Amino acid sequence: MTRRPTIADLARAAGVSVATVDRVLNGRHPVREETARRVYDAAKAIGYHAVGLLRQRVFEDLPQYRLGFLLQKPEQSFYKAVAKEIENAALSVTHARAVPQVDFTASSTPSGIIDKLKAMAARNQAIALVSPDYPAVAAAVEELKERGIPVFALLSDFAAGVREGYVGLNNQKVGRTAAWMIAKAAKRPGKVAAFVGSHRFHGHELREIGFRSYFRENAPDFEVLDTMVNLDTPEITHEATLDLIQRHPDLLGFYVCGGGMEGAISAIREEKLEGKLLAVVNELTPESRAALADETVLMAVATPVPTLAKETINLMIGAIDRGPASVPGQTFLPFDIYTPENI
């Protein structure tokens, strides 16, 4: 078990005395800003337990920004990682006190998202969320915009022309990259397929469009089967993958455009098709990393989550300070590609 860093460890890491650390922690006597920030940076670096208190002491005179984040599916490794990086990015802001509130929607229904969105708007100055593109959600975003609360679309765009901005990948390019990989890795043309979580997720739709367009333009000898909806759940993806394999024993590969890849991975293993089916998934998680390692999966396309969190927080603070943008923007992040050879 790892020993928890002590105040002496923190003093040593910051290059100051224990008494100086104590003054920063308790605010008993003035400490130079440069010294206080050095103690704070050292606390973050070594994982000191009172880093939140230190941040409050060091940045108490700076402006405070309350930022809301509404994510999907709290049980998924990817969204847990996003939540953690949001907290880390908020702690890294040095020109202000960024105070994040991270919540999750267990349901992707319009009413479930809108209820969470309204509750979050009561406590925060700006909001970023992952959401399907529903008219009712767009109307709720427009209402918040009129109240001066900017809303950002994360990972999958929605409410175009209403939301303040989109931050995520260029999803059409992601889909084309997945198709390129399968086409190049295949020994011969054949059948390929794609799963989307929901046709309401704009990001999934764009990935599917990119996937199909690549084959249509550059590998027309391949047959792209009808797209399947998996509701981003491993259970449905597992059953759908088994059904797909049974109906198309000559299937070459497939791309999981959204979530639920764990079900596809387990189905490939169940049928002992590791290294035979060319499967592409999204995000590097413990599950996809293990699947890459034993070549159950050909490639994972991943969002640079730390960059996503930092960029979103900076844009949210900017929107609060400057007011709404005259033209809603898009911030495309470079995506990472992982194969069995570079994990």
Number of helices: 13
SSE topology string: HHHHEHEHEHEEHEHEEHEHEHEHEE
Would you identify the regions where 5 or more consecutive residues have pLDDT less than 50? none
- For CATH, the homologous superfamily of the largest domain is named as Response regulator
Give the total of domains.
3
CATH class of the largest domain: Alpha Beta
Molecular shape: globular
CATH topology name of the largest domain, in short, is: Rossmann fold
| Content-based structural category | alpha/beta
Mean pLDDT: 92
In CATH, the architecture of the largest domain is: 3-Layer(aba) Sandwich
The percentage helix is 40-55%
Binned strand content: 15-25%
Tell me the total number of β-strands: 13
Concise structural overview:
The chain has 343 residues and is of the alpha/beta class. It folds into three domains: 7-58, Orthogonal Bundle (434 Repressor (Amino-terminal Domain)), CATH 1.10.260; 64-169 and 304-334, Rossmann fold (3-Layer(aba) Sandwich); 171-302, Rossmann fold (3-Layer(aba) Sandwich). Helices cover 47% and strands 18% of the residues.
